[in-house]
Amino acid sequence: MTIRATQSWILRFPSNRLAAERSDEFFELIGVTVRDDSGEEGTGWTFTSDYGGGEAVRALLDTVLLDRLIGREADEVEVLNDELFHRTHRLGHGIASMAISAIDVALWDLRARQRGVSLAFMLGQRRASVPSYGSGKASPSLPLDDLVRSSAEYVAAGFDAVKIRVGRQPDQDIARVRAVREAIGPGPRILCDANERLSLPAALWLGRQLGDLDIYWFEEPILSQDIEGYRRLRAQLPMAVASGEHFHSRRDFAPFVTAGALDVLQPDLCFVGGFTEALKIGEMADMFGLAVAPHFMTVLHIHLAAALPRATYVEYYPFMDDLMEHGLELRDGQILVPDRPGHGVTFTPAAWDRYLVR
């Protein structure tokens, strides 16, 4: 069945207080709806956070990309992904990859809905649930008591790992992480994310201190493009080194993998080009024996992780719960893979009315 109509949209809503570093932070979902000639629809989206910018992605969708879908079929998703990549190659791979990601997710969603199966099944599902870590409630601006409480609540809910954001004030981070370790005990894993804030010397110093607290991985301690810096960190720190959320395709991951600079690959399918490209990154990780832990956007990444042989974690970041008809189901720290057709996400009429950018 061919695609007969497309539409772009933006939902803009406030950030979670426990994750935000400023009171005015917000998220934008920049989305695409595609409709075939039977009336079946698929939806996909990318996102921006903190500072906006979604209108730039939408402009590229509306003026360059969406018209190229008319008359094509959802089953052409891999071919279309490649065509759109080459169509936008000279524009760079930031905004363009985000726009392609939204289209790719919508096409995969439509493809699965046309068959009445879940997206995980379409991708080659290997498991019914995926381990998850608690995230999104550990801003560096969060008071220590709130940080400890939110981390302990995740562990009490069955999660065996929690993520803490560090790097804004490294001299205080050690005490904050130690307080969480004392609250949750020696069993659960702690993951530390510096959001690219540190210089290499500072990352080496902080990483060594955090090693005494049995940190499982150190995420984005330095700027994500610094291959040599990550290679040195991986060689000298006692914990795993993770990065990749700011990469825009498998081509960005490849030099880090071949240089031995990362232990954990963290693709975000909303940035790298959707499911089509994220699957190839998963294959790369499998080839080199590396772990994959997709970044953010839990409701989509649960389908991807269910199909990847080396997916170790999905990031449980509950920032969309109030927008959806159906929430994710958790059991003993695992996220159950939804079995509704497509990705299974339906936005509530109330959320659509309240947050749609008109």
Automatic annotation (TrEMBL):
It comes from the Bacteria. The keyword Magnesium applies. Pfam families: MR_MLE_C (PF13378), MR_MLE_N (PF02746). SUPFAM superfamilies: Enolase C-terminal domain-like, Enolase N-terminal domain-like. Residues 144-240 form the Mandelate racemase/muconate lactonizing enzyme C-terminal domain. Keywords: Magnesium, Metal-binding. InterPro entries: Enolase-like_C_sf, Enolase-like_N, Enolase_C-like, Mandelate_racemase_C, Mandelate_racemase_N_dom, RHMD-like. GO terms for molecular function: hydro-lyase activity; magnesium ion binding. One of its GO terms (biological process) is carbohydrate catabolic process. Gene3D superfamilies: Enolase-like C-terminal domain, Enolase-like, N-terminal domain. Its cofactor is Mg(2+). This is L-alanine-DL-glutamate epimerase.
